[in-house]
Write a structure and sequence with these properties.
391 residues; mainly alpha; Growth Hormone, Chain: A; 2 domains
Length: 391
């Protein structure tokens, strides 16, 4: 039950935290501020929720992860559930920055617990289940947020907060206290693990996320330029998002059977031609949507695999490396995307996305250089067996 409870917490955490984007126009009108002002709130939340995840991971490697995994989503659902009650933008920014810290704490500690509670040989499956549940929450957020606003109003979001409280209560009740027997983590440990294989995984994930985020956020402008209707655009992007959920689930699951590195390499190799095809084929054709779905699956399949590999490389710092490989890569990719906008305006959507797609080539090259932790563990086991026989 524990991985299921953690996944439900992940749905609540990421669904609530994704309420902000679709509600920005309403919040802008409610507070009577500029778009730049509300965008600053988004930046503040992104910083505290994504870029602070490695620090949150250090905390989770020092204290009871069960408590932190329950506390984090509570801060998120309270922060976003009461969007309709904030008196001004400054108050909202402060509350959402605290909620962002809660999200950072949850992702690092939750991913660590999902890997820790996973049965032997099933770590990839449960990390995939955990990661895909968060993406499912993100995909559901616009429908839930806008639906609640149109029927009840922004204050109606508060009626959803018991979902997070119930899941947190179940986790505290079902999960045993986590005693950290190893030496408490420090910033020196963060500097140590952010080298070698974990640093390679971080680089791969960041390059892949820049390509994925750039495509997902830029392609709507191309659709508008081609006169594609809003309804078709919404359906197309929804398919892309839900295919990403499926790819996330399948990636880690298949890595349990076929090996982590092999799945990483196959998904990266498969993503390159499909990405190129999406830039060459007109979105009005029937072939475009199936290709888009496959691209979403391939681009996300490596997320849980990278987390599982990092946890296997650093078994004593699993929360720290989980924070590095989850929100921190997305946050860093978000910062890089900030410089892409001017290139889109000057050179156009397709030329810019073509250049960004080239980032998948160094990502594949680094992937090929990874050491497979499964192979190393197998070799170590064989050595121990041979030593015992010789004795």
């Amino acid at each position: 039950m524990l991985p299921l409870i953690l996944s439900f917490l992940h749905i609540c955490n990421d669904m609530f935290s994704s309420f902000l984007a679709p509600l920005l126009p309403s919040l802008q009108g409610r507070f009577g501020v500029s778009y730049a002002a509300v965008s600053l709130v988004v930046a503040i939340y992104s910083f505290s929720s994504s870029l602070l995840q490695p620090v949150a991971g250090l905390i989770a490697d020092r204290y009871d992860r069960r408590l932190l995994a329950a506390l984090g989503p509570l801060l998120v659902v309270m922060g976003f559930g009461f969007l309709g009650f904030y008196p001004n933008l400054i108050y909202m920014a402060i509350c959402l920055s605290i909620a962002g810290l809660g999200s950072a704490i949850f992702h690092s500690s939750g991913a660590a617990l999902a890997g820790q509670y996973a049965p032997a040989g099933k770590k990839g499956f449960w990390l995939s289940f955990f990661a895909s549940s968060g993406m499912f929450g993100i995909a559901m957020a616009p429908m839930v947020a806008v639906g609640m606003e149109n029927t009840i109003g922004l204050k109606g979001l508060a009626f959803l907060t018991p979902l997070g409280a119930l899941a947190a209560f179940l986790l505290m009740r079902q999960a045993p206290p986590i005693n950290i027997d190893a030496k408490p983590s420090s910033f020196r440990d963060l500097a140590r693990v952010f080298r070698g294989e974990v640093a390679k995984l971080w680089a791969i994930s960041t390059l892949r996320n820049v390509a994925f985020m750039s495509f997902a956020t830029t392609i709507p402008f191309w659709f508008v330029q081609r006169g594609i209707s809003d309804a078709q655009m919404a359906i197309t992007l929804s398919i892309y998002s839900f295919a990403g959920v499926a790819g996330t689930f399948l990636g880690g699951t298949l890595s349990d059977r076929f090996g982590r590195k092999r799945v990483m390499v196959i998904t990266m190799v498969g993503a390159l031609p499909i990405y190129a095809a999406l830039l060459l084929i007109a979105p009005e054709t029937w072939l475009y949507i199936p290709l888009l779905a496959i691209a979403g699956a391939f681009m996300n399949a490596g997320i849980p695999v990278a987390v599982a590999m990092a946890q296997e490389y650093e078994p004593k710092q699993i929360a720290t490396v989980s924070g590095l490989l989850m929100g921190f890569t997305w946050g860093f990719a978000g910062l890089l995307y900030g410089v892409i906008g001017p290139f889109v305006e000057r050179f156009g959507v397709i030329p810019t996305l073509t250049v960004i797609g080239l980032l998948l080539i160094p990502a594949l090259t680094i992937t090929l250089s990874l050491r497979n932790p499964g192979h190393e563990n197998e070799s170590a086991t064989n050595l121990k067996t041979a030593a015992s026989k010789s004795l």
